Amino acid sequence: MSEVRRAIYPGTFDPITNGHVDIIKRACTMFDEIIVAVAESEAKKPMFSLKQRIEMAEQATKTFPKVRVTGFHSLLIDLSDDLEANIIIRGLRAVSDFEYELQMGYANASLKKELETVYLMPSLEYAFVSSSVVRSILNFDGKVEHLVPAEALNLIKCLR
Predict the structure, then answer these.
(1) Residues labelled catalytic
(2) Interatomic CA distance for residues 53 and 48, integer angstroms
(3) Which of 4, 24, 37, 149 could form a disulfide with 60 if both were Cys (CB 3.0 to 4.6 A apart)?
(4) What is the CB neighbour count within 10 angstroms for residue 24?
């Protein structure tokens, strides 16, 4: 029997975007299980609470049987040990993402040699979408329907 290919897709998901969902959908074709790990990330001062971000991610991925969502507030390598997952998924939109993500990937590998990071680019239509762009638009009551999954949008509307 082969080993389960379990991958963690970590982030603050503040809020989850169509770009995130695109990465998750494509990762489902590569791995047996995807764990969307929502970071507490108090240092980033998220717009939405951890509980709200977990709920948005759960709703946005409810049709993906390979996906489960969890919150965390530890080192990613500790979470990978707890979840028995040695693959990290990260999205790359631009060169600036690459520099940061490469540094984080090396830092994680220095702490746990068997941890692999897989970098996925979102589909071209989502290349500009980020949670920070969505938050900026939300701060001015702008339209974000084309940037976030409908399930997350419903929760955002209820929370605002």
Answers:
(1) 20, 44, 93, 131
(2) 6
(3) 149
(4) 22
What CA–CA distance (Å, rounded) separates 136 from 154? 18
pTM of the shown model? 0.94
Q: What one-letter code names the amino acid at 120?
A: L
What are the φ and ψ backbone dihedral angles of 20, each rounded to 5 degrees?
Answer: -60, -45
Complete domains list, the chain, with CATH? 6-159 (3.40.50.620)
What does DSSP assign to residue 38?
Answer: E
Q: Is the bond leading into 149 cis (omega within 30 degrees of zero)?
A: no
Best CA proximity match to 72, nearest among 115, 12, 120, 22: 12
Integer CA distances (angstroms), 33 to 3, 6, 66, 73, 116, in order? 11, 5, 5, 21, 15
